[in-house]
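assembly run, all chains below
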Amino acid sequence: MLIFRQMFDTTSSTYTYLLADNRTREAVLIDPVFEQVRRDGALIEELGLKLLYTLDTHVHADHVTGAWMMKQRLGSCIGVSAASGSAGADRLLNPGEKVAFGDHHVEVRATPGHTHGCVTYVLGDKSRAFTGDCLLIRGSGRTDFQQGSARTMFHSVREQIFTLPEECLLFPAHDYRGLTVTSVAEEKRFNPRLGGTICENDFVGYMTNLNLPHPKQIDIAVPANLKCGAPEEGHMPPKDPDWAQLTLSTAGTWEMQPTWLAEHRAAAHVIDVREPAEFTGELGHIKGAKLVPLGQLAARVGELPKDRPLVTVCRAGGRSAQATVILQKAGFERVANLTGGMLRWNQEKLPVEGRNT
Ligand code: FE
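ok done. output:
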């Protein structure tokens, strides 16, 4: 079975796609975004996947790829098309080549026109295709910079994408109106630039009169993407917290395992955000914990110590996750949530006090 996830970057309106094999847990990630590598990495780890490859559809002009960064974090290989001219990839892909993950694979189809190195990745059973900035939903990528050519794009779409099965689902690299997926049949019929009875000269006429603004990010994004997203000195992304062993959840909180806290109790102050009756109830509390119920936390942040990082705890780890959000908003930078709360702490038979039994 295929595991499939579509992620969105709101800044650049980019879609990133995670495809994985349910049995072997091997995965590929299409068009990752540099600023979203932490999010995508968290999802990959939560789902228990092994990322084999990041695959870019082309050298993007509107965002920096997360390929290099993901390789640093998860050890994935970088795959880009040989025609892209990118340096630093582990695998340069040519048309017809397959990238396997478990029992699945994607096949590379050359779909130049937006750039000369653009490719579409087609899932082995042709049920899904990832069209990058070639065919968009009821639109197309622009053809007015980076070796773009409307004539080339017209042939790419008609010969490489519209020849896929009618029911094949098409997933673009971007959408600016909130649409997420289309199909070959739909675009053949309704794409105003490339569908129906539109001919090559109609498309060229359409594309040469778009008068689009210069992309804001192009002068940064293209040079970085030609190196698969490796940053310049001095432009490194924010480091992960190093004061404790933490993992980032896809929900966006830094999580601490109970055994780590028990073994490094002096590393942080514990803020218990339950109600007073719970603090002295059947689950007890962690020695030295300060009780500040969640509903009072925002108003009482002034009472909290600043000399060490803060770890929040509640019954099951939900309210305390919200507490980390409140604390970060209040300016506390080193904050983590105790995973599983006092329930997990008790299950793991870690020391408690104040238990009212
Ligand atoms: Fe693009």
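The two ends are 49 Å apart (CA to CA).

The chain has two domains: 2-225, 246-347.

not gonna interpret more than that til we talk
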